[in-house]
Batch of 2 targets.
Target 1
Amino acid sequence: MDSKKMQKPHAICIPCPAQGHIRAMMHLAKLLHSRGFHITFVHTELNYQQLIRTGAIDPTVEIEGFCFKAIPDGLPQPEDANEAPDPIESTKSISKHGLAPLRELIRRINGDTQGGPPVSCMMRDAFMSVAQPIGDEFGIPDVAFWPIAGSSFMGFFHIDEVLQRGFFKDANCSANGYLETPIDWIPAMPGIRLKDLPTFVRTADPNDFFLDFSRQAVQTSLKASAIILHTFEELDYEIIDAAKHKFKLQPPYAIGPLFALCDQIPNPKLNSIKSNLWKEERECIEWLDKRGDATVVYVNFGSVMTVTPEQLKEFAWGLVNSNHPFIWVVRPNLVSGGSAILEAEFLEETKGRGLIASWCAQKQVLDHPSVGGFLTHNGWNSTLESIHSGVPMLCWPFFGDQQMNCRFACTVWGNGMEIDGDVKREKVEGAVKELMEGQKGKEMRKNAMKWKEKAREAVEVGGSSYISFDRLVNDLLVMKR
Ligand code: UDP
């Protein structure tokens, strides 16, 4: 390899092995590549094989300066080879076994003078705390990428204080309205309640995996060379600023929506790399093409969440009774303790009016003029995509940071309305009607359009995220461990 290429900066990108995290990191990697970085993108072996199966990655296509590497998951092959690996199990396993293979991978890369320049920085998902020692061991900057909103970031950073203040001591801590307890000591987040905090704090077991996982992400980020948040300043500035002061952080880089920044890269080969762990069904777009403007409700609960067979049924009949056309993405593994097969009666009732798919090109769906509302679990990627598309949301959060995203959509940004936890068909019907026909729906749509504009401005040349990304690139080039 010629000496000029060997001097290129080289970012090793390490996502958490779950759909939303992989996608956000992939966008960050593409952006860095477009600014001259050599990229090594690290998947777990099972995810890598799955991405090849779905056509998201074509291993025969070579992209100059962009390489994939896979490390062992430490898990057996799933029984159904077509099913995506379980993200929770993958995350648990990689958090335990990931360090040695990552270390070995970097040694190999650095020892191979033909393969590319030596690794000069690590971009890791903040939740991949397991990788943190690599920064010191190889003397490279360790950049912690939080693929979440500023409010959730603030929530994670307060987990220790929540515990120190004596909350969640009792094993029944989530019962009897306890979660409604207001919290007035987190700066820049007035009105939040215990139930809005990252749900991983809701345990009395100090050894709980996800509690430890959350605290590790914070502890390792406090030692990181830099912190990136997947958001934009107009949405989150005050909170990020408050977090910076309270935790004495270097100013975090607010860079988002990353997918929208990526849309500006004029490299079709690079943009052909996708991150879908399921095969996209193209029919959704064709189906939407035949509908009127803002007439369709889009329902999708992301890649991790599960529902009970009863909840599936209540959502189904709520949608039927609303009388609005809908697309509902029912992942093959959406239902826990049952199958994702919908009743024949439901399918008969909604013939021609409802489309059931197993996975779709979500951003394209949200951008389609026929979509008038999004019934979502408020995963951060889905929420940010909805904001960027200007689509109002019906929120049904499940876990992690989703409750906080719901809270902000419903009370701060004004583009969301919550269906509370205990889902019943009447509630779903009423909420869908309100969203699509009601006064509240109109207001939410207006606010959604306002945020759409702001999200788009943020990524334009001179916009806040554009400038933050520029700053990141310049800083990475001079940053030392
Ligand atoms: N997604 C998709 N098609 C689907 C469902 C989801 O492309 O049918 C994408 C969605 O656009 C988002 C990601 O998968 O980028 C899900 O991430 P999110 O943070 O919203 O939720 P999670 O899956 O982590 O719960």
Target 2
Amino acid sequence: MEANSPPLKIYFIPSVGPSHIVSLFELCRLFASRGVHVTLLTTPSSAGFLRKPLLRAEAAGIRIHVHSLKFPSQEVGLPEGVENVVGVDDTDVATKVFRGMGLLRHQMEQFMEQNPPDCIVADLFYPWASDLANRLGIPRLFFDGSGSFPTCLLESVRRPGSPHRFASSKSDPFVLAGLPHPITVTLSRLPDYALTTNEITYMMDSFRDSELNCYGRIVNSFAELEEEYIEHYEKTTGKAVWHVGPTTLLNRSSEDKAERNLKAVVSEDEILSWLNSKQPNSVLYVCFGSGAYFTDEQLFEIASAMESSGHKFIWVVHNKGRTENETEEDRQKWMPREFEERMRREDRGMIIRGWAPQTLILDHAAIGAFMTHCGWNSLMEGICAGVPMITWPLHSEQFFNEKLLAQVHGIGVEVGADDWVLNIYVEYATKNLVKRDRIERAVRKLMDGGDEAMDIRRRVRELTEKAKAAIGEGGSSQRKLTALIEDLQRLKSMRTKGGIDDAKEGEFKREK
Ligand code: UDP
């Protein structure tokens, strides 16, 4: 930054989903550590959720300001304090939270108009942020919590001549058009809003319009993971993209992690001492992100598969209460008879009924594979820990992320989930079950050993090294971040010198 010039001032606006809040916060931290004046615009309970990492950042001399917004609890009919979807497993509550988030627009616009920053980094759920930024003559960076690869795949499906329009059945495989790799999918694995026109289609279209109307895209990923897709994205959209992560490598300790109001019933010490007694690569870690609540029937299939695979495991289950509140009869609805006791007795497995310290677990040498729903953060965390993945996508862009792991990099084994769902709480029960034999086959493929598993392991470790190099001194992500900060400084000084007056009325966009 220019000597004596006031620091660049950036506002970050997270949405209400836990992983989006956390990953945007990690970007705040990254910018603040470079001397940028960072303000997070959020509600008290989301700020409370970030209390621990905020304090940790402060202790490390990294200052992140919080501008508190008043959540319209009464207007949307929610009790005070329910301001995000952390730990929420009820569609009605989640819908109200999202509605409340929409109503924050006026407060945010007013604040930003009165105290304009030099740049806005806003989550995709704020499509109006691009217009506001254009009006203020400042850049808006678009953030959607995922990578360039899934965005390019979705864009390919949206094209008028996309081959999915000619698929003869839901399970008929075809290759997506115009991408750097031949990516094979089926209709049943594509998001329904891209196949038909429904309410979500309109919402997603408004997000895309706002992305095309912004300055560029910021991504918590590293260039080496999706090189060809950066180029593809920039070519097809005309927008610039900055890969500045993976930030998870900068915030690895559980001390840096946000607080969840989900119960963590097993202590970190207990987990670590159990893992310490296990051989390297001998334990499977099973976790489906912050909001995947499977049906009892599906949980039963997972438990049965893990038992018959013969391998050790840590299994995270969020929607089940503590053991002492559950009868054997309750348990038998979602696991085989005396499964938990048997696994404990045989020192085979640990069920975490609540929030797990995921990065701590993944980083342990005993973890040999990660069964994941392919959420972008989990994908990053798996790669950064050097752990091969068993891919079990559910919703959002996860079926695309699976392809990045399994088809592009060969570091994931597909479990064979083949039904995209919009809402895991409601829809999963009516869609296809993934049967135990498929699950067991995928587990054995990675955990039994053999040449193929060794190759997969080697490939993921090579990517880990690339991720570390990217975020390290002189690495691609560091260079990108520097370039972005310099670019924002340049725009700021043009603005303060009156060089871009004509940018004020909606013209402030960066074409690649
Ligand atoms: N996570 C965790 N413990 C859990 C479940 C999830 O720490 O028991 C964290 C995980 O490490 C990741 C995030 O929650 O950082 C999940 O984000 P992701 O993008 O993978 O999936 P989402 O929750 O958005 O579906």
